[in-house]
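Collaboration report, partner site 2.

Our partner group contributed sequences for two proteins of shared interest, and the home lab folded both. The records are reproduced in the order in which they were received, starting with the first partner submission.
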Amino acid sequence: MPETSDRKDDHIRIIEEEDVETSGTGFADIELVHDALPEIHRDEIDTSTTLFGHELAAPIVIESMTGGHPNTTKINRNLAEAAQQMNVAMGVGSQRAGIELDDEALLESYTVVRDVAPDAFLYGNVGAAQLLEYDVDDVEQAVEMIDADAMAIHLNFLQEAVQPEGDVDARGCLAEIEQIASDLSVPIVVKETGNGISRETATRLADAGVDAIDVAGQGGTTWSGIESYRAAAVGADRQEAIGQLFRAWGVPTAVSTREAASVHDCVIASGGVRSGLDIAKAIALGARAGGLAKPFLRPAGQGTEAVVDLLETLELELRTAMFVTGSASVEELQSADHVVLGRTKTYLDGRQQ
């Protein structure tokens, strides 16, 4: 099996078996102000939101996780079936393997999502580093592979720096992103992979014409840590140590959400989002939706019903937060009263000086 495909299988195994969680999203420092007299009916709250003209039943994104290895087909099938049933958004993992390798079983790990979710909002995924090798037609191939409604371009340079075989040439990526944003047939989402996006970077992306920013901040799954485990397995001691040193590196998700939302009107908050309450807090900070990845992995291995069950729990948690803040809609939740405390306040205050 080619190296890129094997790496996908390694990632899933490590996430399931090892400690790859960090803390420090900042959501614990965000307090939504309780409304003791909300004057709304909980069950009539409108949790819908719009993403690139597509109405979702709830502002929940099943974040890009996997694809590119036959072992991942079942996972993506179950996630996509749940996204179809619950009308939420879903992304696939990097499609590099699907673009570069001629393997029907491997391709199915991606194409299965549209086969089982004909109406769901699905987005594809390529790495920013690969844009230096790809042209617009190559990215269109990724769009066509899953009949994508949007395309994510992921930024994962810390992960690449820890990988023994990583691609560490980040020169020229912004210009390529701008070109793709201009010429691709579908909207572009630029997403981090667990280290966050600062206000300055979000501004550069907004100026480049990207349609949305997914902050994927620090505080959830650590790809630096995942690659550290992979490096240890092949005896790359120095890369293993680098991965551990930078395990908790990045802009905390709550900070990144606030900063990105200050310069772009379509922000998805991910990175350590673990509940509907976290999603509510992210929306109050300016996000359009909240995304989760790792919490869906185990349910996806169990079956579609387990994924749907988690989505229903998240929706009820979100709806409850909206009820007790007097927010009858997601738009009202975006202006809900909240207080920023602790390290997150210190971080934000320090960034404003």
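Second partner submission, folded after the first:
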Amino acid sequence: MGKHQKRIASPTFWPITRKTHTWVVGTNAGAHSKETGVPLLIVIRDMLKIANNAREAKRIINEGGILVDGVARKDYKYTTGLFDIISLPALNEHYRVLLDANNRFKLYKEGPDAVKLCRINNKTIIKKGTVQLNLHDGSNILASNDYKTFDTVILSLPDRKIIKHIPYKSGNLAMIVGGEHSGEVGKIKQIRKVRGSGTNTVVLSNEKEFETIEGYVFIIGESAPEIKVI
């Protein structure tokens, strides 16, 4: 995506109409990439519907009335994405960004004590052998080497301290964040490792049994989910 964004060519997971206007707001660099996030203006105008147009949404955002993961964001092009917590202090409302069954972003109500779930996408070793966890939202956090790729860490907000660790393993609960089963929650039955350059797959079950690729699996709990799910 370039500096300008046409509605018809915008990502399919943006919950906007495609043919009402030619252009839609683009994204600036942020915690999430352009391919996995949505501009804050769209969240305010099209998802929360607390603004009638872009001008009103920009004013609300510029006044610091919107918090993302506990931090006021005044850039209307700021990119927010999966599992972010959107807070409106003036209304005492809090929401978590998730995907619905149509693979579109949707906001789910949360309480004021909502925590942030982050998947570990990678680990790197920095100076003096310190382990750095590279999280799904583009942020990094220092930790021990006890954590593994695809594990989930629960962070307190806004200080982003690890308060719980949920391993990526059979028996734990996961939410699917892409593909045909987007938005579904199931228990992991088997993790199928593929040798070579093939993609690992995961078998899950809820009312039925299904299989998806490893990259779509996001651990959300052990015996019970750590977040509100529908």
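Feedback sent to the partner group on the second submission included the following. The two ends are 32 Å apart (CA to CA). The helical segments are 40-47, 54-62.
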